[in-house]
Amino acid sequence: MNKPFFEEENLHLLGELDPVVHVPARLMIITYLYVVESADYVFLMRLTGLSWGNLYTHITKLESAGYLVMEKTFRGKKPVTILHLSDHGREVFRKYKKDMMKVLDGLPD
Amino acid sequence: MINEKALKKVELKVFRLSSNDGLFDFFLGCFVLMFAVAPLLSSSLGDFWSSIVFLPFWVIIYFVLLLIKKMVILPRTGRVKFGESHRKKMRKFHLIMFITNLFVLIIGAYFVVTTRNMAGWVPGAIFGFAVLVLSSVAAYFFNYLRIFIYGLVMLLAFLIGERLFIRFQFSHHGYPVAFGITSFAIMISGIILFIRFLKKYPLPEIHSEEELV
Hints:
The complex is a heterodimer. By secondary structure, chain A is of the alpha+beta class. In chain A, about 55% of the residues lie in helices and about 20% in strands. Chain A has a three-stranded antiparallel sheet with strand order 1-3-2. In chain A, helix 1 runs antiparallel to helix 5 and helix 2 packs across helix 4 (about 50-65). The radius of gyration of chain A is 17 Å and the shape is elongated. In chain B, helix 5 runs antiparallel to helix 6. Chain B contains eight helices and one strand. The interface between A and B is medium-sized, with 30 and 32 residues. Strand 1 of chain A pairs antiparallel with strand 1 (about 80) of chain B, so a sheet runs across the interface.
C-alpha cells in the first residue's frame, strides 16, 4: 500500500500548536532568544525590526505565559531591560519546533 | 522551517548584528600599517624595536575603538550575551587558531633554518601564506568573506612588494608602498562599514526604558 503524503495525526498537531508562540512576531522573538543566553531590549528591537511599543506588547504576552523573563537593571544611571527565555520557554519552543517539523516534513513538495 | 540549520543562521544573524561595525577592520588596518612603517624605522631603531614601537600605538587604538564600541555602537545595537553553542564555537576557533599558528611557526622556522641562500621573496611569501591560512580559518568560522580577502591582499602585498623591489628598486623590499596601500585599503573598508552601520542603525527612538521598568 502506498504511504500517505503525510500522517493525518501529524496534521492534527497543527491544531495543538501553542497559540502564544504561533504568532510571527512572537515566534521571531522566541527564536532569537533561543539561540542566545540573554539580550537587552534594544538588541531585540534591532533584530526583530519591531517598534518599541509593538515589541513590548509581545514581550509582555510571552512573559505572562511564563516563557520569558524580564530583568530590570541599571547600567550606570540608565535603566536596562534584559530578556531571556525561561527553562519552560525553552522547553515550549523545542516542542513547537519538533511539532512543526513533524507536520511540515511530511508534506509533499 | 525551524531546523538546526535555520537556527545556526539565526545565530549568525545575531552575531553579525553585534560585530559588523567596521571596528575590527580598522584595527586590522592599523596592524598592517606596521609592515609599511617598521621597515622605514628599522635603519634607525633596528628590526626588533621598530616593531615594538607599534605596541603603544595599537594599545591606544584598541582603547579608542573600545570607547567607540561602548559610546557609539552599543547604544545603537544593544547588548547580547551569547549562548553555550556560540561559546563552544569560539573555544573551538581559538584552539584551531592556536594550532594553526603553531603549525605555521614550525613550518616557517623549518624553512628558514634548512633553506640556504633563500630568494628574498621566499620568507615574505611564507609569512603571507601563513596570514592567508589564518584569515581563511577566521573567515570560515565567522562567515565573513572579507577576512579571507584581507588575507589574500596581504599575501599579494608581500609578493608585489618584492616585485617592486626587484623590478623598480623600491626601498625596503617595496613593503612601505605595498603595505601602506593595503593598510589604507583595509582601514577605508572599516570606515565605510562604520559609516554604513551608523546610517543603518541610528540611535533608537527610546520612549525611555523607564516605561518598562
